[in-house]
Write a structure and sequence with these properties.
Strand content: 35-45%
Strand order of the largest sheet: 1-2-3-4-8
Shape: elongated
Distance between the termini: 37 Å
Helix content: under 10%
Number of helices: 7
Length: 710
């Protein structure tokens, strides 16, 4: 006999603005935010930012603070039936976006997944332009719900059926190892080349246009944490098509893609290298829109690596003959592509709330700035690139101070004078100690005559977020006046936009950022404790800690975001919720034992029944009115070992249109009550109450007499 069963599949997922970070099953990645950029877009507000949201990508309009599109995929079997797995059973770890310079003029979005697969989505620029238009997005048809099982017969994307049903390109090559980093080759002349790296230490080069893999690069003994394409034009690395990778084994490797081999290994990192970024150093004074090829060839490549020891090291890819003395030329290795030039150091008065390693390092798209963020920290350090004239001036000033210190020390030694030392003084001078620390850190001694990292970079300011930072990205376009904007992904499932203004010419103090906007309405900051649907399934209420959100189920948009508080404005921890009949009000049960009534239309708390229980209210349920009766009843189960019944009545006076709760009966139990439910019978004599307690028992009572059913 053949049995037929119903199988439910996840139609969509919402209430996730950005992934909260690394978990035991999902490794950390510094590439969790990216901007969708297409040709002809000059205004930064028209560039949506893509954020990881479980198994989907959410595109937000930063100017309006609303989601524009949702990118996901659906696995389909040969029979046309889904796999039955939850939509977020596979999670995205990293992403990257290509420019619209490929053959089909589509915007490619590459994603690395925890199951070891790489999926590349193709977005039509015309559809993107419709999403990023300045029109209102209140209508659900304005949101791009890609590959959603909900409302499958309706087309959310207008007449573009191909865009709504297009499946991504699937690339399998990492086995079951999570893909921790994906990056497109954005250098000139490169089309459709993608690099991916997994936790197995393997780097794979892909041809997205041909939909095939090119070759593998093996060399890391641990997970690969960062990738960057380089195309230096200096005389020491002329015509090189290169790739730089960083790994948890503490090594940074430089690969020659033409020869498919490693040409240099950068050592000296004391711990795992968590991130890297490589870009052309282009100070603001040297950038020009109509720069010639000669000026383009003189631009300097810089590699920045972030290590677990908290150091941000800078490596030069420029010609070694430009800044080396004759003695350095003899000792320099012509085969080396990179040269260590120092580390980025914040000011002495800068204090960080985290002593952990570097989590993210990113260059601005124009090469003017570089941002550094530490793990479990709320601060992003911003460094600005100096022009060549300013860098040489800083170098000469540093050398002059060094010569002055040496002359003072030489004069003191000739006169036989020595500095008096105390019992707590270090046996070495400050210069000797700094030299020893640098020698221990890098195992190399830098020439004092060369241009160091802090000669080329200056500390510009800090961006301080409200919570711990999981990742950040620079906006593609500068603000008016030369300021920059940074989008920050927080650990509280929210996005923030911060602005760092350009300092004045005579300013001697680093500037601080200002928070422009916060996208915290479309996600809960903590775990969701309860979900309740309205009687028509048109709205949903979700609660987490002290936040209550009302959602439109059809469009997955947040209608209300309410902070739960008692009469003294004290925060309340919500545990359960339910819609009252009519779907105009929501009743909440809190850990403090309070019952709150919320008006859905206004989002206000219209009634509070404080201290309804002496313990946490774990569960509540609404008794539907019987035929011919208008009275409604509410039952609550609490940790104080009681089950209480409340009648829903109308308030008096100005709030007559809002209900209130009146305590009617109390049922004493022998243990904490974890859940209570009414039966669906409409006959008052047959209606039952089910009570589940902490002793793993379920007791059944008659609703009218509260006697045992059995």
């Amino acid at each position: 006999m053949q049995h037929t069963y119903l199988r439910y599949e996840c139609a969509d997922a919402f209430s996730l603005s950005c992934s909260s970070g690394s978990t035991p099953s999902v490794p950390h990645s510094s590439s969790i935010l990216a901007f969708l950029r297409s040709k002809g877009k000059s205004n930064s507000s028209n560039h949506p930012v893509l954020s990881l949201a479980g198994s989907q990508l959410i595109g937000y309009d930063l100017r309006r603070g609303e989601p524009l599109m949702k990118i996901g995929h659906r696995e389909v079997l040969s029979g046309g039936v889904g796999t039955g797995r939850a939509l977020n059973s596979g999670q995205i770890v990293c992403l990257d976006v290509s420019e619209t310079n490929n053959r089909d003029n589509d915007v490619k979005v590459a994603t690395g997944w925890v199951d070891g697969s790489v999926r590349v989505f193709s977005l039509d620029p015309k559809e993107m332009a419709r999403f990023t238009s300045s029109g209102s997005s209140d209508d659900a048809s304005q949101n791009g719900l890609v590959h959603s099982l909900l409302h499958g017969n309706s087309n959310f994307l207008g007449s573009s059926d191909e865009f709504a049903c297009k499946e991504p390109l699937l690339l399998n090559g990492h086995g079951s190892s999570p893909v921790q980093f994906v990056v497109f080759d954005k250098n000139k002349g490169s089309v459709g080349r993608l690099a991916s790296a997994g936790s197995d230490g393997v780097v794979i080069l892909w041809d997205v246009v041909a939909e095939t893999g090119l070759f593998r690069l093996l060399g890391h003994r641990g997970p690969v944490t960062g990738i960057s394409f380089i195309c230096p034009t200096g005389s020491s690395a002329s015509g090189m098509d290169g790739l730089v990778t960083s790994g948890a084994d503490g090594l940074v490797k430089v690969w020659d893609l033409n020869g498919q081999c490693c040409v240099q290994t950068l050592t000296g990192h004391r711990g795992s290298v968590g991130c890297l970024d490589c870009s052309i150093l282009c100070p603001p004074g040297e950038a020009s829109s109509n720069a010639s090829d000669d000026i383009e060839s003189k631009k300097k490549w810089r590699l920045v690596t972030g290590c677990e020891d908290g150091q941000v090291r800078v490596w030069s890819v420029e010609d070694l003959e430009a800044e080396s003395t004759s003695e350095d030329k003899e000792s320099a290795d012509n085969d080396e592509v990179f040269r260590y030039v120092g580390s980025l150091q914040p000011p002495a008065n800068f204090s960080s709330s985290s002593n952990e390693g570097i989590a993210s390092v990113h260059f601005h798209h124009n090469g003017h700035y570089v941002g550094v963020c530490r793990a479990n920290d709320r601060v992003i350090e911003i460094y600005a690139a100096r022009s060549e004239v300013e860098a040489q001036k800083k170098r000469r000033r540093r050398l002059r101070r060094r010569r002055e210190k040496q002359s003072v020390a030489a004069n003191a030694s000739e006169k036989g004078e020595s500095k008096k030392r105390g019992l707590l003084d270090d046996p070495e001078s400050d210069d000797e100690q700094d030299k020893a620390e640098s020698k221990e850190d890098q195992l190399v001694e830098l020439s004092p005559d060369m241009v160091k990292a802090m000669d080329e970079f200056e500390f510009r300011g800090t961006i301080r977020a409200t919570h711990k930072i999981r990742g950040f990205a620079f906006t593609p376009v500068l603000e008016r006046g030369g300021g920059i904007r940074v989008v920050v992904a927080l650990a509280t499932n929210a996005l923030e936009v911060h602005s760092l203004p350009k300092p004045s010419k005579n300013a001697q103090v680093a500037v601080t950022s200002e928070k422009v906007s916060a996208l915290d309405m479309y996600g809960h900051p903590t775990g969701i404790r309860s979900v309740s649907l309205s009687s028509e399934d048109s709205m949903a209420c979700t609660v987490s800690k002290n936040v209550v959100k009302i959602w439109n189920v059809s469009s997955r948009s947040c209608l209300r975001s309410i902070a739960a508080a008692s009469s003294g404005n004290a925060s309340c921890y919500c545990l359960c919720a339910a819609f009252l009949p009519g779907n105009m009000h929501v009743v909440l049960g809190t850990r403090e034992g309070h019952l709150l009534l919320i008006d859905v239309a206004s989002g206000d708390i219209v009634y509070r029944e404080e201290n309804a229980h002496d313990g946490a209210i774990w569960s509540l349920d609404i008794r539907q009115p019987s035929p011919g009766q208008d009275t409604m009843s509410l039952v609550t189960g609490s940790a104080d070992k009681t089950v209480k019944f409340f009648e829903v009545e109308s308030q008096e006076g100005e709030n007559s249109r809002h209900p209130m709760l009146v305590h009617a009966r109390t049922l004493q139990m022998s243990d904490d009550v974890m859940c209570v439910r009414f039966s669906h019978s409409t006959d008052p004599t047959k209606r039952l109450v089910f009570v589940a307690s902490l002793d793993s028992t379920i007791k059944v009572f008659f609703d009218d007499s509260l006697k045992f059913f059995l």
